[in-house]
């Protein structure tokens, strides 16, 4: 007996509309596109912005994080492990390939203090805000 994902009784002829969509997007699109789209969370508090990407299975060295002219770009690649002798795959649902996400960041960040950490499959990019400059001036009406 083998361990397989429960799907349709006949994978070549899905018996439901949902099954047809699942087959089309998982098999046709997945095999032609060599990229994946990791989930992103963006948060803000009084002192900083934070961007989190869910990207398990990637090593730190496989990420590239750049901030150029107010555009933050995070890219990387998740590589499929080499197939080993004696190991037969019955189902592969994990997405592999390259990804790239870009964000326009506000002008009020401290560029020199931007940092990134990767732990437990989450890449966190921390963007500290600069002190708000309050300019107040009395304007004479003429």
TrEMBL record:
| InterPro entries registered for this protein in UniProt | A-crystallin/Hsp20_dom (IPR002068), HSP20-like_chaperone (IPR008978), Small_HSP (IPR031107)
SHSP domain spans which residues?
A: 31-142
Q: Which Pfam families match?
A: HSP20 (PF00011)
Gene3D superfamilies in UniProt: 2.60.40.790
PROSITE patterns, A to Z? SHSP
The Swiss-Prot or TrEMBL record describes its family as follows: Belongs to the small heat shock protein (HSP20) family.
Q: What is this protein called?
A: HSP20 family protein
């Amino acid at each position: 007996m083998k361990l397989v994902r429960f799907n349709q009784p006949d994978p070549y002829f899905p018996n439901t509309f949902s099954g047809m969509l699942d087959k089309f997007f998982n098999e046709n699109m997945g095999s032609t596109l060599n990229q994946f789209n990791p989930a992103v969370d963006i948060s803000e508090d009084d002192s900083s912005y934070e961007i989190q990407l869910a990207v398990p299975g990637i090593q730190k060295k496989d990420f590239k994080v750049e901030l150029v002219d107010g555009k933050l770009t995070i890219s990387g690649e998740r590589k499929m492990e080499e197939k080993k002798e004696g190991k037969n795959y019955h189902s592969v649902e994990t997405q592999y390939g390259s990804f790239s996400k870009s964000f326009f960041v506000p002008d009020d960040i401290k560029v020199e203090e931007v940092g990134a950490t990767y732990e437990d499959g989450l890449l966190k990019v921390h963007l500290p805000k600069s002190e708000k400059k309050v300019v107040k001036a009395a304007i004479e009406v003429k």
